[in-house]
TrEMBL record, chain A:
Protein name per UniProt: ECF transporter S component
Entry's transmembrane regions: 12-30, 42-64, 70-89, 101-123, 135-157
Gene3D superfamilies according to UniProt: 1.10.1760.20
Keyword terms, alphabetized: Membrane, Transmembrane, Transmembrane helix
Keyword NADP (UniProt): no
TrEMBL record, chain B:
Stated name of the protein: Energy-coupling factor transporter transmembrane protein EcfT
Sequence intervals crossing the membrane: 47-64, 85-106, 217-235
InterPro entries: ABC/ECF_trnsptr_transmembrane
Keywords: Membrane, Transmembrane, Transmembrane helix
Stated family: Belongs to the CbiQ family.
GO (cellular component) term, any one: plasma membrane
Subcellular location per the Swiss-Prot or TrEMBL entry: Membrane
Membrane-topology descriptor: Multi-pass membrane protein
TrEMBL record, chain C:
The protein's name in its UniProt record: ABC transporter ATP-binding protein
Keyword Cytoplasm assigned: no
Keywords from the UniProt entry: ATP-binding, Cell membrane, Membrane, Nucleotide-binding, Transport
Gene Ontology annotations for the cellular component aspect, listed alphabetically: ATP-binding cassette (ABC) transporter complex
Organism per entry: Crenobacter caeni
Domain ABC transporter, chain residue ranges per copy: 6-239
GO molecular function, one term: ATP hydrolysis activity
CDD domains: ABC_cobalt_CbiO_domain1
InterPro entries in alphabetical order: AAA+_ATPase, ABC_transporter-like_ATP-bd, ABC_transpr_CbiO/EcfA_su, ECF_ABC_transporter_ATP-bd, P-loop_NTPase
From TrEMBL, chain D:
Pfam families, per database record: ABC_tran
Keyword annotations from UniProtKB, A to Z: ATP-binding, Cell membrane, Membrane, Nucleotide-binding, Transport
Source lineage: Bacteria, Pseudomonadati, Pseudomonadota, Betaproteobacteria, Neisseriales
SUPFAM superfamilies with a match to the protein in the record: P-loop containing nucleoside triphosphate hydrolases
Similarity comment: Belongs to the ABC transporter superfamily.
Protein name in UniProt: Energy-coupling factor ABC transporter ATP-binding protein
InterPro entries per record: AAA+_ATPase (IPR003593), ABC_transporter-like_ATP-bd (IPR003439), ABC_transporter-like_CS (IPR017871), ABC_transpr_CbiO/EcfA_su (IPR015856), ECF_ABC_transporter_ATP-bd (IPR050095), P-loop_NTPase (IPR027417)
GO terms of molecular function: ATP binding; ATP hydrolysis activity; ATPase-coupled transmembrane transporter activity
Keyword Cell membrane: yes
GO cellular component: ATP-binding cassette (ABC) transporter complex
């Protein structure tokens, strides 16, 4: 019987979780307006496909929820969607060139807005303690409803974040030693 | 005490925080939990971690729900500010309680024992591995970072350099760490395969953390609390 | 005598809570010297190298490399004076391409692009890695990876080189390449301090050997004299360095030089042939 | 019957056109020792991975010809399934650490635990493996703090705890002192029911094996006893100065017919004396 994930995919997912957590922690410590907590998920999406990336994303936020912040656990569905959409984009050739990577990042962002906005608006009243709260407050002040302000902010912040993350992950995977990338038969084309 | 027992207290806690709608009651709960955190080991780190997350969240909630920008910049009518802020405070207290509760649960589960418990649990080995991986990797990453820092210092990277050079330093240190973590994926998979990882469905675990009568009692208490809180909610 | 490139003055060092690893150790290495450091596992050889390039600060005494007190100098200044090859090559590699890895230290040192390029090309040529310049360091085999760390060190261009087990991963061809480089550097006046368990290699290349034991240098002299210590030799009869041992066993003048041995052996063989021939005639 | 059998076997890496290993042709009976020798990049580690059952999961490649372990094809099975039979110890000992353990003892026990053995059996195996590798004192240490030599002892102990029938040692002792390496190898050689394959670039470490297989550029050049191959393989391998002197002497025709080539530095001393006296 073949297991769902090969051992290789499993260790890759564990490395992906580690990346997500280390970088996400760094971004939140430095109070950056972006999260940087999906780079590992993107790397897994590129090398092992949508399902592995989905699990990586969800696992990251669940573990995070227990270890440091319950806020992260609430956003686990978002992390999963990022992995799923990024993996599907990668499989469809969305990481073959720079313009395609940017388009993939946009698609991921749209998916994130759909899932994250309700969570952020209803569970946390629009605030999560990051630099982006200021924008929510500002937009809210200009006169939009809370949910609209949140959606707009989520879109803006995530677009920046996902573009940076996708580009970083893409560069990383392109620069991998050939000996390693050859052992991922399901890896998406990156050039 | 079994490392998992602490986490069993989280669901009733979650339910309880949702059930309590009075800020004073929530605040009292929060104080109790924070005192519990303070009484445990490593309380300095844990309390700092708590504060690092909760203080910015407070600022964010205050900014968004106080609608200070509205009134200051646009002169909007914010007569409902107290109600809004009260709701935000409730939310903040709930998150704070959960975070403090998680810290209490973690105190009861040191990484080595938690990993062992995960591998000994009924979870499939692959799931146990994924859940344990941050615990396992954080030790190795820290060790590895020390090695990388040493090697790069020998080549002239100054970890205590002034700011303009700091970015360069960061790249020089983060680069090898990332390359290593990814290159290590293959080696680690080979090592796991070589040790017959997942080759039989049921693995043995030496010195598996025992599930004692006390754990059972606590688990029962947690379940009872859960039922109690849920029941009281439904009753009303 | 000129200022030594490396000097230890009454140096003591110990890890926290453990008995001191090194105690009142003094030594100097001059320009153009190639010195080998030998001793049992855990004698403190690697620690001594780390002290020499300032990665560790001595708890007593003073270490100076290229005239800099390692305790006071900044890493960037020390990196212009002393370079280190670590025992595990994988731990110091940080770039995605061989070329960038070699150029790392010169770039960090703020050299001009042309100078970096020149040094990189020279180092890659000296280590026969030019054809792998665009490969990923982790795609190289163990010997090539070790050569890559050597190339990075060559490009760093420091007067004092500290090598921890440099020959372990080399095959015969790579070893010959390395020894040729070593000979050139010695005559060019570079100071080299290396750790090796290969006593034949030490005897061939290092005119001076330090035996580290019990927290200090217990012997300092030519390889044959120092390596003869029973503490360094296993219980096998083929005591290293093996060539002088062989010479003694068959009654030739002891040497560590292969050409000298070959010449002496040829003479011995011819003399014996002539002798048996004259016996036959008689 | 041979435990390992290769007949005109070759291996081609995925994406490559030319094979990375070819003309592999030998049979190794159970309980014997084979030494695979060659320089850097000669394909030793690839052959080691192939024997360890890495093809095609960990080593994406296709094989041609016959490559069998115990009568069954070498490749195709999941690597974890073969772990109880075949163990590979690599030159980089840190690659053997799973990272799933916080002490050396747990690391050694991890393999037998995965086999689902009973606790006493696991403890017995750990005790035995650590003792054989002189690593008892390391048992309580954290695996990531081990030095190279220590990690190599632990890596070997981890492999032995799986009680393999075939043990592959890919320059597994290169961080130990020569004396320590010889001592360990001697202990392994007398273990009953264990077939050893060494992968070496040092002639002397390889010369003690029953059979020597010479790889050059991924091609099997020869497979015979060490003494027979001596004159051909030595230029490609590392060796002590005394053994190399013997090679030069034989090449220069300053050797006596009937005196065999030396297999070690100590051996060289007596052989040279034979040539000189006889």
């Amino acid at each position: 019987m073949n297991p769902l994930f090969s051992t290789r995919t499993l260790t890759l997912m564990s490395a992906g979780i580690a990346f997500n957590m280390v970088l996400g922690q760094l971004a939140s410590m430095l109070k950056l307006p972006i999260f940087l907590d999906a780079i590992g998920t993107f790397v897994v999406a590129l090398l092992a496909g949508p399902l592995a990336a989905l699990v990586t994303g969800v696992a990251t936020n669940l573990i995070w929820g227990v270890l440091t912040s319950p806020v992260a656990a609430a956003f686990a569905p978002v992390a999963g969607v990022i992995g799923l959409v990024a993996g599907l984009c990668a499989r469809a050739g969305g990481f073959r060139s720079l313009p395609r990577v940017l388009l993939s990042a946009l698609l991921v962002t749209v998916a994130v807005v759909v899932v994250a906005t309700p969570i952020r608006a209803y569970l946390f009243g629009g605030a999560t303690g990051s630099g982006a709260d200021f924008f929510v407050a500002y937009l809210n002040a200009v006169g939009s409803k809370l949910i609209e302000s949140v959606a707009l902010t989520v879109f803006g912040v995530n677009l920046a974040d996902k573009v940076v993350s996708a580009l970083l992950a893409w560069t990383l995977v392109r620069a991998l030693p050939a000996r390693l990338s050859a052992t991922f038969p399901a890896a998406a084309a990156v050039r | 005490m079994h490392p998992f027992t602490g986490f069993a207290l989280l669901p009733p806690l979650l339910l309880l925080t949702l059930r309590l709608t009075d800020a004073r009651a929530l605040a009292a709960l929060l104080v109790v939990l924070l005192v519990l955190v303070w009484m445990g080991g490593e309380h300095r780190v844990r309390l700092r971690r708590w504060a690092l997350l909760m203080l910015p969240l407070a600022a964010g909630l205050w900014l968004v729900h106080g609608r200070y920008l509205d009134s200051l910049v646009f002169g909007a009518d914010v007569a409902d500010r107290p109600q809004r802020l009260y709701a935000a405070a409730l939310l903040w207290l709930r998150v704070g309680c959960l975070l403090a509760g998680a810290q209490v649960a973690l105190r009861l589960a040191p990484p080595a024992r938690l990993t062992r418990a995960l591998f000994a649990s009924r979870l499939p080995p692959s799931v146990a591995y994924l859940l344990a991986s941050p615990l396992l990797l954080s030790v190795q990453l820290r060790r590895r970072l020390a090695e990388v820092t040493e090697a790069q210092r020998a080549r002239g990277v100054d970890p205590a350099a002034p700011w303009p050079q700091r970015a360069r330093t960061l790249i020089a240190l983060a680069g090898p760490l990332v390359v290593w973590t990814l290159s290590d994926v293959g080696e680690r998979a080979n090592a796991l395969d070589a040790r017959a990882f997942r080759s039989v469905p049921c693995r043995t675990t030496l010195d598996a953390p025992a599930f004692t009568a006390r754990d059972r009692a606590l688990l029962a208490a947690a379940l009872a609390a859960f039922v109690l809180v849920a029941g009281s909610w439904l009753w009303r | 005598m000129a200022e030594p490139v490396l000097s230890f003055e009454q140096v003591g060092y110990g890890w926290d809570g453990a008995p001191p690893l090194l105690a009142s150790l003094s030594l100097t290495v001059a320009a153009g010297e190639c010195v080998a450091l030998v001793g049992a596992n855990g004698a403190g050889k690697s620690t001594l190298l780390r002290l020499a390039c300032g990665l560790l600060a001595p708890s007593d005494g003073r270490v100076s490399a290229g005239g800099l007190d390692t305790r006071l100098a900044r890493p960037s200044a020390l990196a212009r004076v002393a370079g280190m090859m670590f025992q595990e090559a994988e731990r110091q590699l940080c770039c995605g391409r061989v070329r960038d890895e070699v150029a790392f230290a010169p770039r960090l040192g703020g050299l001009s692009a042309t100078e970096v390029k020149r040094r990189t090309a020279r180092a890659l040529e000296a280590t026969a890695l030019a054809s792998h310049a665009d490969a990923h360091p982790f795609d190289l085999n163990a010997g090539e990876r070790r050569l890559l760390t050597l190339a990075a060190l060559i490009a760093q261009d420091v007067p004092l080189m500290l090598l921890d087990e440099p020959t372990r991963d080399f095959d015969a061809v790579q070893l010959a390449l390395f020894e040729a480089w070593l000979a050139r550097e010695k005559s060019a006046g570079r100071a080299i301090l290396l750790i090796s368990h290969d006593y034949d290699f030490v005897a061939r290349n290092c005119p001076r050997v330090l035996h580290l034991a019990g927290g200090g240098v217990i012997a300092d002299g030519p390889p044959e004299q120092v390596l003869h210590d029973p503490a360094l030799q296993g219980d096998s009869p083929g005591a290293a360095p093996t060539l002088p041992a062989l010479c003694r066993a068959i009654g030739l003048p002891p040497t560590t030089d292969a050409a000298c041995f070959d010449a002496a052996w040829r003479v011995a063989c011819e003399r014996r042939a002539a002798l048996s021939k004259s016996r036959g005639e008689a | 019957m041979a435990l390992i059998r290769f007949a005109q076997a070759s291996l081609t890496r995925a994406g490559a056109t030319a094979p990375c290993l070819s003309c592999i042709d030998f049979a190794l009976p159970a309980g014997q020792t084979l030494a695979v020798v060659g320089g850097s990049g000669s394909g030793k580690s690839t052959l080691a991975g192939w024997l360890a059952g890495w093809v095609p999961h960990a080593l994406p490649a296709t094989e041609a010809g016959v490559a069998e372990f115990d009568g069954a094809p070498l490749s195709g099975a999941l690597p974890a399934v073969r772990a109880g039979q075949v163990q590979l110890v690599q030159g980089n000992p840190y690659a053997a650490l799973t990272g799933c353990a916080f002490t050396v003892y747990d690391e050694v026990a991890f393999g037998p635990e995965n086999l689902g053995l009973c606790e006493e059996e696991i403890r017995a195996r750990c005790r035995e493996a650590l003792a054989l590798c002189d690593a008892e004192a390391l048992a309580v240490r954290a695996p990531s703090t081990l030095s190279g030599g220590e990690a190599q002892r632990v890596a070997l102990a981890c492999a032995l705890a799986m009680r393999p029938r075939l043990l592959l040692l890919d320059e597994a002792f290169n961080r130990l002192t020569p004396a320590a390496a010889d001592r360990l190898l001697e202990r392994l050689r007398v273990l009953p029911m264990l077939t050893l394959v060494l992968f070496e670039k040092s002639f002397e470490r390889a010369a003690g094996a029953d059979l020597m297989l010479w790889l050059d550029g991924g091609v099997q050049r020869a497979c015979a006893e060490a003494g027979v191959l001596f004159d051909r393989v030595l230029p490609a391998l590392t060796a002590s100065d005394a053994v190399r002197a013997a090679w030069r002497s034989r090449a220069a025709d300053l050797w006596r017919d009937g005196v065999a080539a030396p297999c070690s530095a100590a051996d060289a001393l007596t052989r040279f004396a034979e040539v000189a006296d006889g």
